[in-house]
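[User] I wish I could look at a protein chain and see how it folds. I have put the entry right below:
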Amino acid sequence: MPTWLPLVPAVGAVVALAAAAWVLHPRRRTATSWPAALIFVSSAWWCLVAMLEWATGDSAERRALEIVHVPATGTLVFGILWYTVLFVGGRWTRRKALWLAVEPTILLVLTLTSGWQQWLIGPGGARDEPVFWAHVVYCHVALAICVGLLMATSSDAIGQRWPMMVAAAALVVPMALNLTVMVGVARHLRSLPDATPVVLVLTTLVWVWAERGTRGLASRRAITVHQVVEAIGDGIVVLDARGVVIVANSAAVELAGRHGVTGPLLGCSWREVLGDVDLPDTRRGGLVRSGDRVIDLRVTHLGTDGYQTGDVVVLRDVTESEAARHELAEQAVSDALTGLRNRRFYVERGQQLIDQAREEGLSVVAAMVDIDHFKVVNDTFGHPAGDRVLARVAAQVQRRARLRDAQVRFGGEEFLLLMVGETFDGALLRMEDLRRACAGIRVPTRGTEISVTVSIGVCALTEDLDAEGLLHGADVALYRAKDEGRNRVCTI
């Protein structure tokens, strides 16, 4: 045997302790620094014990060293589990730590209690005791779980495939080596110092490099597709070909909860998630209503070779934003002073109102109302007084309007009343009543009262008129009323 071979565990211990100090340096400390340091310190402990165990020939000393080395393997596996959870982007909680600390704690109690040490290390050595073998099985199962986590993460980790695969491969090597030694496949290795802790030091160095290295491997923790989906504020639902939910993020679960769907969505049909939304609508996507909520729904079909295999559904509750948008749209076509519609309303929707009335076979009559000599009111009493006059006249217009009528402040002192389903004679009577009511308006200001009159032009919709032609006819009738002396109702 080479004379330098026993020094390998000693070198491994020195490297491990130096690496522990390096990862714990304040400038290099990350979330994985503490589990990495625990692995390094435990490996150094095992390396030193392995070197001393090989060097001594006394059976009692060897048994004592075997007892001392067992807790190191327990803390080592604990550190590897801790590091793996963080490495794959998981969350290390106090509950996980307490559960995984149970086995190392039991080993430490058995080691420190002289009466119980025989359960762990018998007179013939560790390999004769079932408790020791239970510990070995636990360690290898735990390490196998770590390898599985790393491999599973490598399949969906964004930009982290190679770091995960390298980390998994690096952990398999010490597992295979230790298992070979333990089952006696290579009995000649028992005459040499145990190389498992040294290889574990190298494995941890590879992990640190894979996590923090900047060449070839990523320098941050893994970001999985699941994490990305969970981070999206919109609801994400993936359906299979049968319309059954196979993926649903937290936002989708919360959105479904607003519709009375409680519990996990996985395995639910689409109708159970948004039962009152028709499936044909969801296939097209767009804004749909579910109860009193408005859902912006977008569907992307999944498939290969022409066969649809499922759908990705993106859900966003836009009830509040739609209400705000509707309010802004209403404000855009409303007059702030009088509360009536404004000129823009008639320009954008006047033809639509007329076409709808024609489809329903209803008559339409337009009346243009203008306050006589309103400029004199503004010039004499000021614009605030003029605004009060406008508001009073607008109130009278509103009182003569019916449910389907459009009431519009068309200009500075002009109002348009579009009467739907009204006869021409009936419209004339209503406008005459409006004229008399406006003549009775009195607006107090500066110790006096403002009185006004209105001129009204009335025009009925005919087959050859559109919205613009109807408005022109009402304007012509209004000018006739003004030309004939104002304060009257005229027609073409």
